[in-house]
Amino acid sequence: MIIIVGAIIVLVCVFGGFLLEGGEMPVIIHATVNEMLIIAGGAFGSMVIMAPKKILIDIAKGIGACLKGAPHNRASYEDLLKVLYELFLLGRRNGMIALEEHVLEPAKSSVMKKYPKFSANHHAVEFLCSALKPIIDGKIKPDQLRLLLDTQIGRMETEHHAPVSVLQKTGDSMPGFGIVAAVLGIVITMSSISGAVEVIGEHVAAALVGTFLGILIAYGFMGPLATNLEFVGESELDFTRCISACVIGFANGMAPVTAVELGRRGLASEFRPTADELEAMFKNMKSAK
């Protein structure tokens, strides 16, 4: 929603200024249709050449995620910390084998069902289960877990940056496609140079609209959208890093509350509950049982 509001502000300010200067919108609208075919078609074609199918799909999904807004808020982080604390407490009291049913079938987990915001995040649930499973199985030592999770997060970072890079490069190329549209418009103008002045002026105006649209789309929309996609991806990675920090702390012998505290300290200030708030949360969980 915020992105849509921002886009409206850009359009209102740009075209509002144009109208205040005495411009006429029919001129822009008439030229836009033809110029957009060149600019948008060229941009999409360059993306197809530049990126494999998976990256193109990731870009579409990422734009959809940007339109939805920030993927996580304070409430979702509080649910995460509660889930982790409850699972760690269960593992500490009843042994790591007690976590097996929750890890192997998270959809049926009595713990995760208490926190629908977290259980609905399939990527986070999958990451948490994949982090706990090697410890439960005893396949690796606790001090080896960090390397395992860091490798997985590193791969996630690479996959996140790929669509951002492609979108940014496509945005950078938009002024170039605008110039292509303008040059083609000048070619048309030169072919009718012997015509009426009004006709020549219309062709020149249409050519200039191509340059205008290329610059506007690049710096008014695609560049900011790529940056927003970067922030959304970083938000997802931060959520994953919090899980990783807590699980690694617990695997290395930290008490459940201390392991969760480790994750809490790594959160951004807007999402991070205070130590007192965290303690109050855990007390409320115990009294609710």
How are the elements arranged and paired?
Layout: H1 2-20, H2 25-50, H3 53-68, H4 74-94, H5 100-104, H6 116-119, H7 122-137, H8 145-191, H9 197-251, H10 256-265, H11 275-288
Helix pairs in contact: 2-8, 2-9, 3-8, 3-9, 4-9, 4-10, 7-9, 8-9, 9-10
Structural class: mainly alpha
Determine the mean pLDDT. Answer: 87
Uncertain parts: none
Sheet with the most strands, sense and barrel status? none
Strand content is: under 5%
Mass-distribution shape: elongated
Radius of gyration: 27 Å
Number of domains: 2
**Count of helical stretches:** 11
Separation of the first and last Cα atoms: 39 Å
Count of DSSP strands: 0
Oligomer classification: single chain
Helix residue percentage: over 70%
Task: Write the element-wise H/E pattern from the N-terminal end onward.
Answer: HHHHHHHHHHH
Description:
- By secondary structure, the chain is an all-alpha fold.
- The protein folds into 2 domains: 28-66 and 157-220, no CATH class; 74-156 and 235-288, no CATH class.
- Helices cover 81% and strands 0% of the residues.
- The protein is elongated and about 90 Å long.
Structural descriptors:
2 domains; 11 helices; 289 residues; mainly alpha
In short:
The protein has 289 residues and is mostly helical. The chain contains eleven helices and no strands.
